[in-house]
Model the fold of this input.
Amino acid sequence: MPVFARVVRGIVAVLFALSCDASQSADARQKLGDRRYSVVIDAPVGLSTGNPGALVLEARPEAGHKLSIDFPSRLELSSSSGLDLPAKLDREAASDLREQGIRYSAPIQATQPGKQTIEGRLRVGVCTGDLCEPVEVPFEVELLVTAGS
Done:
């Protein structure tokens, strides 16, 4: 019977570890927005010092709306002292800039292990027909950085 108990304990440990990884992945994605637009923020999971990562933001219009490609879209970022990342990405830095979606990918380099924070503000223009208005989407992302090998 002791062998059976060890096997069951091992299975329980593996299932617990998998559930922790699944919850970490779920926490790495944020969804923001309103009836006019949605913004999805994907933060890197498993970021460690010495290894690069990326914070990816995608803005999409909701039904009956579009995003302005002429508006001065911008992603502004600041972080705790343990992260190196760009302070600002203008519309020219967007990896996708269309009325159906705007996407930014900000490179991140972790310099210190532990809990790190990124604060940001995404600025885009949301349009209904020919009427466009500026929208600012503030956000905060927390990352758990591990020590690199």
Notes: Helices lie at 2-27.
